[in-house]
Design brief:
42% helix; 176 residues; seven-stranded mixed sheet; 6 helices; alpha/beta; Rossmann fold; globular
Amino acid sequence: MQGSNDQSGPVLVLGGQRSGKSAFAEGLTLASGLAPVYVATARALDGEMRERIARHRASRGDGWRTVEAPLDLAGALRAEAAPDRAVLVDCLTLWLTNLLLDDRDPAAAGEELCALLPRLPGSIVLVSTEVGQGIVPANALARRFADAAGLLHQGVAAASARVAFVAAGLPLWLKG
């Protein structure tokens, strides 16, 4: 985790499903030495998602404070980012899903997030699932989601000091 104590700006951690991106991001967050805050964007809408959330929470242990922010991510970051805190957002694609399902404007929310990120104090690590490496989805909502995720990732990457892509648990630093 070379450079993991560097707090010069946000870090975006991208990867596929089960790539190890969350574990890598948690390691970066803890390596900062700051008080860890986990900003959870998931909604427990079914049993499988409730189980995933429970597994994530158990794997982090008791040292983390958890804040739920399924829609107002910028508001949660404004409230939680502080010089003595390391904030981990997991994950942007679940947040994007929530925005789309609630008929919110993902482009406007993404622009607000990207404008805010460079101004936040402390350590900020954001996790997101890269979904644009497969075939073009067959239905309109899935295509809209993939397009919105790609644009969000580009904006957050531009606003971040460092960007890592994780595959098989191994990070490849794309920026910084």
